[in-house]
Design goal:
Blueprint (H helix, E strand, L loop, with lengths): L8 H5 L4 E6 L4 E4 L1 H7 L3 H4 L4 H4 L7 H10 L5 E7 L4 E10 L2 E8 L1 H22 L3 E6 L4 E5 L1 H6 L10 H4 L7 H12 L3 E11 L6 E14 L5 E10 L11
Length: 248
């Protein structure tokens, strides 16, 4: 039976991952089209060049030391490399071989940024929960409560309003300028702060209207693409509540 050699070149050129073949001296021997796109280098520039110059910001980085160490071993490993010059994260699978190594490269910037955004949001939630002033976070154009800290819940009679919209939670404020101001902040991305704002509302949800005086701030929350996705509201009670039922 005659053995047929398999030509891997077409496969490598159609891969979505960047591919580099590197010799024991750290010189790039071969690369695919995806590597040229991901690394923003031409094929001619990469072949014959040092790996440290082909991968952005690799020289002197922690990733360079990790790649060298993995290449001297026998076990393939994935590492992450951050490039400050491009503010980009690469995930690199390093596969050692007797005469060098293979590198498979992905641009994972979007994934890392999403993870960092989630971590930042969780840190913000922890800060908000323990803040000594009433803070709430609402999402969307309808201002649906996503988070209310303890002080904010105390302000509304220890009610949990998360998941409800502002208009649904406080129907008595449907025509209030405060709702219009939230709409404006969400639409324009411009924050609002009001001092000594008098608000009459159903504090406990029992139909008993009370009056309060507050300093109120509406701070827009932005996504990575610059789009407003919500509002952080800070309310500071600057006057005693007046338990006065509205006249019939």
């Amino acid at each position: 039976m005659t053995k047929t050699a398999i030509d891997f070149e077409p496969l490598l050129q159609h891969m979505s991952e960047g591919f580099l073949a590197v010799d024991a001296a750290g010189i790039v021997l071969a690369a695919n089209n995806a590597a040229a796109t991901i690394l923003q280098r031409s094929m001619s520039d990469m072949k014959g060049a040092a790996l440290s110059t082909v991968v952005p910001d690799l020289a002197g980085s922690n990733a360079a030391g990790e790649i060298e160490k993995i290449g001297q071993g026998t076990v393939a490993r994935r590492i992450q490399h951050f490039t400050p010059g491009r503010y980009t994260w690469f995930e690199i699978l390093v596969v050692p071989r007797p005469t060098g190594m293979y590198l498979f490269i992905r641009n994972v910037t979007d994934r890392v940024r999403q993870q960092e955004t989630a971590a930042v949001r969780e840190a913000v939630r922890a800060i908000v929960r323990d803040a000594p002033v009433a803070i709430s976070i609402s999402r969307g154009a309808e201002h649906r409560y996503e988070l209310m800290n303890e002080m904010s819940r105390q302000l509304v009679g220890d009610r949990d309003l998360e998941g409800r919209t502002v208009r649904n939670a406080f129907p008595e404020l449907a025509e209030s300028p405060l709702i219009d101001l939230m709409d404006d902040v969400y639409r324009t991305g411009v924050p609002y702060t009001g001092r000594n704002v008098s608000v009459t509302f159903d504090r406990k949800g029992d139909g008993n209207m009370v009056e309060g005086v507050f300093d109120i701030t509406y701070q827009p929350l932005f996504e990575l693409d610059g789009r407003v996705s919500g509002i952080l509201t800070v309310a500071i009670d600057v006057g005693a509540y007046h338990a006065a039922a509205l006249p019939e």
